[in-house]
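Changelog-adjacent note: as of this version, every example in the card shows the full chain rather than a window. The one below runs 475 residues end to end.
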Amino acid sequence: MVPRGDEERAPATLHDTFDGALAAAGLLLVAAGDGLWLVGLPEGPVHQADAEPGFVQDMNEGPVTAALRPRVPALRRLIPVADATLARQAMALIDDEGKTLVRVAVCAVSTGHGSATVLTLSPLRGYDRPHARLRAALDPLGDPEAALTALRPPAMRYTAKPPVDIAADMPARKAATLLARTHLSVARANERGIVADHDTEFLHDYRVNLRKVRSVVSLFTGVWSEKDTTRLKDRFRALMAPTGPLRDLDVHLLDRDRYMEMVPEALRPGIVALFDDFAKERAAAQAALARHLESDDYAREAAALEALLASAKRLKPGPAADVPVAPFAQDLIWSRYRKVCKRAARIDDATPDEEVHALRIHCKKLRYLMEFFAPVFGPSEVKPLVKALKGLQDTLGAFNDAAVQQDALRAVLERLPRRGAARIEIATSIGALLTVLAQRQAEGRARVASSFAAFDSPETRAGFADLFHRGKEAA
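Full-length structure tokens:
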């Protein structure tokens, strides 16, 4: 290959979502002095002069924004991940007569943490074979995602669902400690993003992973002593509690457009006023949580919990501590599966809401257990069972969301001033929302029976029995 023209070098900043959506797609988003460059697309580097990285839906329209839209989750903000030097060079693959066979755009990026080079090949008409040979020669040379991830500082190399290597013969206490330690680490990786308020997914991931830690502590019965188990339950519950108000407000604000669609146009000004109030409350809640996460008390408690989980031996063993993971997991999953089936079969139009909510919690616990132990029983075997369970969870989740939203809106009504035009406007709109949400809750309840019937298919029953019951009997 030979160069075409001079190399261009410039200081730049790499942007990506915190969870590396672009790196996973083999793409680099580089902000340089002349705008944004998106590198790694099949058609070659794309440039846009008038764009600032952020939420893609808020960026100016242009070729970079258009290319990012299907590749970046709407709830994730593009944030700076590393300062870099960008070098661009046009090159060509030529034959013995100097004819250009393939045009090559070379983009080399280096940071203080690593370097990567992205080549974009452009075939010329009539030269498909040289293009195919060059691509075949280059494809085995590297893993694009690994190379692009290596450009980021270690603190920015985030995986929301890291693999946890659990073996079938591993003692249950060791597996529990490993799972709890891993998910606590993932939760803590989100702290800076919550404080900076980059996007709502930081808090969401933080809470999901703390919930998984709490599930390990509460569901892995007997792996630790009763005293240590109770102590862990209390401490992790206290660690998570301050995040509730902000997450509730985030959920409201993310539902703004949906709420607007629920009411007639004449009532929408009241929804606007309501969400203006939510936004003010959210700002205060976010500031309060940021102060908490940056406090010495929080730092000490989080570090102390990490130290407790640093080794399986730091917590006293319970009666099931040394039980091998495989039979231990089978007992847990089969028992929880039977509870789900029995509770779901009893639900009808007269079932109290509390029992429907309890079923949702049991389904969530069953899903966590199946995901925790998927490496033991085979991800390909567990995946279809999780997919079947997810259908039931989605129905129960819609029912629960409608109920929770009604409770939250009633609480807002109670806090409104007793008099004033603004109160009347907001209260009228909330009344309309409550009517629609009550109807959706009723529709959700009506779908529970059919969703359970779909989950309780012969194939799913056989799948659960084969993995978590018959296999144990054979052993």
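Structural remarks: The first strand starts at residue 2 and ends at 16.
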